[in-house]
């Protein structure tokens, strides 16, 4: 049976591997240790690994300020070593391994072709962009389709390239076409969700699908970014997950709070702004008389609200 101590990088790769000579191994910042850690938070002689005759191992703190820990912030003086879970000494990570422990099977090589699906998704994005421009074309002169589509393709490529660069810097795998597929599918999903909410608002005659559409789209974008980051940096994902959640919540709450402070309401949407085919309408039709009565009721409420605002302004003017 042989024992080894490994000094790990933050991403889990091995910086140094030291075989255990005898039954003890000292770890610290001093040069006379068996494993030297160049870490200001590690004591000169910080810890000692002790291997028992029964094949057990124990990491013992040597009376230092920071001790040893399995997880950050959970300081201990002694740790039993029974698996390959990384252990923390100061800001450094180490791993103790035995030659008798079983290894996980090798990972398969990436054999799936992602690029055809990524290019197909990109064509779908460009097709939707061209369709949208064509529907909005009401002028005498045709819009520059090629420039608009080239701009859309460049924007998606830059978005995917940035995440591919992040993956290259952190994990060594850029996976550009995987990120391109994520970006294009995310765009199409966002378009589909927005369209479904618009149809639901028209079909039901309710405003709430339009009022929540912005927040739903923020959630969709957050999930897209989450997928990008998890692919680019799978080892550090638990930390990035909280960052994405905080940014998504802030993107939803800050505009909402600003609108409430300025206008005392949570949405700008007060009426339906688009018409769809009557066949998708689910709400019961309203007669002209009913529509006129509802309009009169709405006018009365608007006049009362305007009168209250006028009285308030007049009172404030008299006070001034």
UniProtKB/TrEMBL annotation:
Residues 25-75 form the FHA domain. Keywords: Membrane, Transmembrane, Transmembrane helix. The keyword Membrane applies. The chain crosses the membrane at residues 114-134, 146-170, 176-193, 205-225, 240-261. This is FHA domain-containing protein.
